[in-house]
Every structure is written in structure tokens, then in C-alpha cells.
Amino acid sequence: MKTVLEVLRATTEYFTRHGVESPRLNAEHLVAHVLGKKRIELYMEFDRPLGERELTPLRELIRRRAAGEPLQHLLGTVEFHGRVFAVDARALIPRPETELLMELTLKEPLPESARILDVGTGSGVIALTLAAERPAAEVTAVDVSPDALALARENAARLELAERVRFFQSDLLAAVEGDFDLIVANLPYIPGGEIASLSREVQRDPRLALDGGPVGTELIVRLLEEAKAHLKPGGRLVLEIGHDQSAALAAELERQNYRDIRPVADYQGILRFLFAIYG
Predict the structure, then answer these.
(1) pLDDT on residue 168
(2) Contact present, 190 and 77 (Cβ < 8 Å)
(3) Is 44 helix (H, G, I), strand (E, B) or coil?
(4) Are 112 and 139 a contacting pair, CB within 8 Å?
(5) Residue 274: per-residue pLDDT
(6) Which of 70, 140, 173, 246 can bridge 271 by disulfide, Cβ–Cβ 3.0-4.6 Å?
């Protein structure tokens, strides 16, 4: 009978051979998941023997992870801005960059009862985080994908925020009515021709959530035009964008009469976000 430590070492070696990034961390997450423990608790249980009741489901998870299935899909959840969200293949797995986008957005000066729109909500992490952090705000979230919207609604119920966020299907702002103090969007921005070169884990995300068109900025440029009819005077637009798109999109914002255009870097120093005001 193998101990927790022995299983962790063997799994780490197996993941290393199969090209899994951060193999020890992945192994710890999966063992903790099967044992119903927090990852940090494993360090107190290295000598615990594991029987077939634990090893059978663990072997299947290890096999799937080595084959490229994302860790978050196997765990079924991801932590985002201090809250736990359900994740699966229906929507993009939230990235650390988007957490930073939330931290920056929450610092923006907005009315207490701001009207906020999240475009391309996916699993709902942006809309639900804003609703939780801004209790007086009126939050609306849209997505073109009914599958993503179903997941977002499940997360709203999970976090007891179902009464705070209105979700509905829309191709960008086609079905949106009214005006907003803030429009925030993390839209697909990867050029379609580059998707095949992405990691096998990223390719498990829905293509609809990745493909920004031949250049990668087509959806974002469409949003810049459509947002002007839905931003209050002085309303704010906040975008997450691709690593090499800041200059072109900042120029497009200026061309479309946005002002106070502000590119902001992510944790890697890449200009990953754009902030702008309209009117």
C-alpha cells in the first residue's frame, strides 16, 4: 500500500514525462481532491496509506490530466478573487490576468448604484465578482453562448447572487437595451489561425471563447462601435486584450472618439488591459 508521499512522487514523475506544466502542483491538487482535503493539509499526511478506494478514482484523474485535460476541469472549480466558481468545458477557464482586471476595475470611480454590463461573460466570474463587491450596483451579463450562460447562472446560484445579476443571450450588444456607467469585456482575442498552436489545455476551452477572428481584434473593434450607444456620458469601457494588440486598439479607441485611453500592464509587464471613457 502506497503512502500519500509515494503517490505524489510517482505522479509528479509521470506528469513530467507527459509534459504537464507544474507537475508536482498538479499532483498535489488531484490527491487533495480525491481525499477531500485542502492541498496544504497533505503536508501533514505524507505517511497516510492510500487504498484502492482512493487510488482507483485518482488513477483516472491522473490519466486524464496527462492526456491534456485541464486541471480545473478535473477539479470542477477554480478560485477567482476569493470566491469558488464552477468551471467546465462550457466556458473559458478564468485566467490570473482576469483576476487582475477585476482588481483594477474595482478601483475605478463609479456611482454607488452604477449600471454595469459584462460582455462575453463566460462562466460569469467578472459579472458575479462585480455584483458581490458592489452590492448597490445593477449588473447585467451577456454572452452569445447558451452553454456559457447556463454555467454562469449556476455560478450565480452557487454564490447566492442569482437575484443580483441579469443574464441573457446576445451577440455582443445586439440584444442589449439601456445605458451603463461601465462596460467590461474579456472577449476572444486570439487570431483564428493561431489556435492550433496553443497548448493542449487551452485548446480544451470552447473555440467560441478563443477565436477573435482572422486578426484577433475583430470582435473587440465591433464592441467599441456598439458600446458608444450604451455608455452614459463619461461612461467607462474596460477591456482585456491580446499581448500585441494595445497600440492598434488604443488608436481605434481614439478614432472612435473615446478619451482618457489608458493601457495597463499585467503581471508579466504586457499591456493586457485598456481603460477608456466615452462622451
Answers:
(1) 97
(2) no
(3) helix
(4) no
(5) 98
(6) 246
Q: Is 127 within 8 Å of 141 (Cβ atoms)?
A: yes
Task: Please name the residue that has the C-alpha cell 478619451.
Answer: 259
Instruction: State the pLDDT at residue 41.
Output: 96
Q: Which three cell numbers stand for residue 221?
A: 473593434
Rounded CA gap, 149 and 90, in Å? 9
- Classify domain 2-67 at the CATH superfamily level: Ubiquitin-associated (UBA) domain (1.10.8.10)
C-alpha cell at 60: 483516472
What is d(CA 191, CA 242) in angstroms, rounded to the nearest whole number?
A: 9
Q: What is the pLDDT of residue 199?
A: 95
Alpha carbon distance 64, 58 (integer Å): 10
Euclidean distance between CA atoms 220 and 119, whole angstroms: 10
C-alpha 58/C-alpha 36 separation (Å) is: 12
Domains of the chain: which residue ranges? 2-67, 78-278
DSSP annotation of 279 reads -
| Helix, strand or coil, per DSSP, at residue 152 | helix
* DSSP secondary structure string for all residues of 97-129: HHHHHHHHHTTS---TT-EEEEES-TTSHHHHH
Q: Is pTM, for the whole model, over 0.70?
A: yes
Which stretches within the chain are classed as H helix? 4-17, 23-35, 52-66, 71-75, 96-105, 125-133, 146-158, 207-210, 218-227, 246-255
What is residue 277's predicted lDDT score, i.e. its pLDDT?
Answer: 98
> What is the per-residue pLDDT for 104?
98
Nearest-CA neighbor of 36 among 15, 20, 57?
Answer: 57
Cell numbers standing for residue 72 = 480545473
Which residues of the chain register pLDDT less than 50? none
Alpha carbon distances (Å) from 30 to 13, 75, 96: 14, 7, 20
Biggest CA pair distance of the chain: 68
Domain 78-278: give its CATH architecture: 3-Layer(aba) Sandwich (3.40)
